[in-house]
Amino acid sequence: MQPSVLPSSFSLLATGMEATLAQSARMVATHVAASLPDADTLLASLPPGALEGSPDRYTRHLVHADPFERFSVMVLVWRPGQFSPVHGHRTWCAYRVLRGTLAERHYRWNPQDRTATQVNAVTREAGDTFSVPAGLQHIHALGNASDAVAVSLHIYGVDQDRIATGVNLLVDTIVS
Ligand SMILES: [Fe+2]
């Protein structure tokens, strides 16, 4: 379906929406950081052997499903060298590093050719907490560039039944 009104008519809305969503994400991250159980409690709740990870890919463990289906909480275990695909998000999300160090690569979306280009890379340490809104303004790849297992907790704004299809928005990248 094509929009019926010129895009420029909505530029003010888009600008204000950007700031509003960014503020909302900061509030989510602050709330998550202040409200989660401590890392030891969370790690102890995982199945036996889970913290070893898998040689095949990073592993995911559901640790909480909101009864009102507003969000789901997963713990991810990353062996050295394991990374997510480059993705935006179909929903708001938040994450907190529980153990070890994660590497996060950020990408900029180009709406004209519908590709993403890496713009920077940062290191996330245990205790770091972040949240981003849905959409393609925030595209990243997350993974473990260290030589030890890393563990992170992720909160997605979908019911557990939609985690597989309703979270990651995979994008093409330009390698520069
Ligand atoms: Fe993500």
TrEMBL record:
InterPro entries: CDO_1, RmlC-like_jellyroll, RmlC_Cupin_sf. The lineage of its organism: Bacteria, Pseudomonadati, Pseudomonadota, Betaproteobacteria, Burkholderiales. This is Cysteine dioxygenase. GO terms for molecular function: dioxygenase activity. It comes from Cupriavidus campinensis. Belongs to the cysteine dioxygenase family. It comes from the Bacteria. The keyword Cytoplasm does not apply. Keywords: Dioxygenase, Iron, Metal-binding, Oxidoreductase. Gene3D superfamilies: Jelly Rolls.
